[in-house]
Amino acid sequence: MLLRNRLLSLNLTSFLSPLSPPPKSASFLFSFNKTIAHSTHKRPESKPDVSASRPAKQPMSERARFAKTVLFVPPGVDPEDVTDEMILPGSNIVVGPYAGHSQIKEVEFVKSSGRAKDCPKDDRPEFAILGRSNVGKSSLINALVRKKEVALTSKKPGKTQLINHFLVNKSWYIVDLPGYGFARASDAARTDWSSFTKGYFLNRDTLVAVLLLIDASVPPQRIDLDCANWLGRNNIPMTFVFTKCDKLKASKGKRPDENIRDFQELIRENYKQHPAWIMTSSVTGLGRDELLLHLSQLRNYWDQ
Ligand code: GDP
């Protein structure tokens, strides 16, 4: 709770104080409602219109402005109504009416696919997990499903060029994507990653959101920012999952929450509305249940 308050106050100073100025370069608008629509064509036309009940010209309160620019406000929640208690600890994520059953009872490995078009062909929603090699992707997947070595991907850097589908509770998928940006990977392997994984993002209709893993124990990395901006430009919904948040400050370097703040300040330059973000640790379990709850609300909305 203390950490949450500290993060919220960090947010308040770094994001809220210049309440009125727009982002420096709003090259694209990333908003949940807009991007979720991209991820499915089946969505019914009418969704809860949270603004319908209030007069169009009523000025936005500071609370609502904060909620709209800094927090992730899910469908069904009016930014005017967001309270502190609705925000998941260690995150900017507001819990809304679509949040529901979130625990993982069973998980089964379904298949590895070498091409986007070989992925399982059904309508179940999926979340892709992406990040630099060594970011803690396998550890996070194993922590989420509470099984050791569910993430079967090869640990050899640059070798894992497969899309791995894991079916959870027989109703949704966790998708393990190849890591990117490992120094030892050959240029050829990196090029493969680009076309291969980009093809998946651009063509996968059942993709609800990408969980982009960011190592909070190191300063912001150009390659992560580039990846986030590519996803944003292509309207792919994403949640930043900060990993290794248990790591204490090294003798040099900054604390995880300082690295997270630096990352967010860089991200904010390109987004009018900040994407969802959450702090996690596969060592302490920090953020696990909160992340699963967040996935449940995205999924339940998608499933409608
Ligand atoms: P991947 O290459 O992205 O799959 O990364 P791994 O899951 O194999 O993790 C890379 C390294 O980071 C390993 O040494 C893990 O033990 C370590 N690691 C992963 N997650 C955490 C975490 O939450 N906290 C700490 N302290 N170390 C972690």
TrEMBL record:
InterPro entries, alphabetized: G_ENGB_dom (IPR030393), GTP-bd (IPR006073), GTP-bd_ribosome_bio_YsxC (IPR019987), P-loop_NTPase (IPR027417)
Any one GO molecular-function label of the UniProt entry: GTP binding
Domain EngB-type G, residue spans: 123-301
Tree of life domain: Eukaryota
Name used for this protein in its record: GTP-binding protein
Stretch list, region Disordered: 39-61
Keyword annotations: GTP-binding, Magnesium, Metal-binding, Nucleotide-binding
The protein's required cofactors: Mg(2+)
Organism: Gossypium australe
Membrane-traversing stretches: none
Pfam families the record matches: MMR_HSR1
PANTHER family: MSS1/TRME-RELATED GTP-BINDING PROTEIN, PROTEIN, PUTATIVE, EXPRESSED-RELATED
Similarity field: Belongs to the TRAFAC class TrmE-Era-EngA-EngB-Septin-like GTPase superfamily. EngB GTPase family.
